[in-house]
């Protein structure tokens, strides 16, 4: 699936949130280890997706869609 514009940034936010939730669930059941644990990596990657999605969604709304 290919998304463009604001939809892509919204999907990045949703995907980041899902990765974060899955990472927290894995971390809660198996113990936290940022060096080798999958839960920690999923939370980190999910946070990155959500951060960039939020930044670019904000820029999109602020510029009226010119930055898409």
What report would you give on this structure?
With 68 residues, this protein is mostly helical. The chain has one domain (6-62). Helix content is 74%, strand content 0%. The chain contains 2 helices and no strands. Helix 1 runs antiparallel to helix 2.
Observed structural traits:
68 residues; mainly alpha; 0% strand
Strand share of the residues? under 5%
Number of beta strands: 0
Unreliable stretches: none
The helix count comes to 2
- Kindly report the average pLDDT value: 84
Write the layout of secondary structure elements.
Elements: H1 6-30, H2 38-62
Provide a concise account of the structure shown.
By secondary structure, the chain is an all-alpha fold. It is built from two helices and no strands. The chain has one domain.
């Amino acid at each position: 699936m290919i998304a463009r514009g604001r939809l892509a940034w919204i999907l990045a936010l949703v995907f980041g949130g899902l990765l974060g939730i899955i990472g927290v669930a894995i971390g809660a059941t198996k113990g936290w280890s940022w060096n080798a644990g999958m839960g920690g990596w999923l939370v980190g990657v999910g946070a990155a997706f959500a951060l960039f999605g939020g930044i670019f969604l904000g820029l999109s709304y602020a510029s009226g869609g010119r930055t898409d």
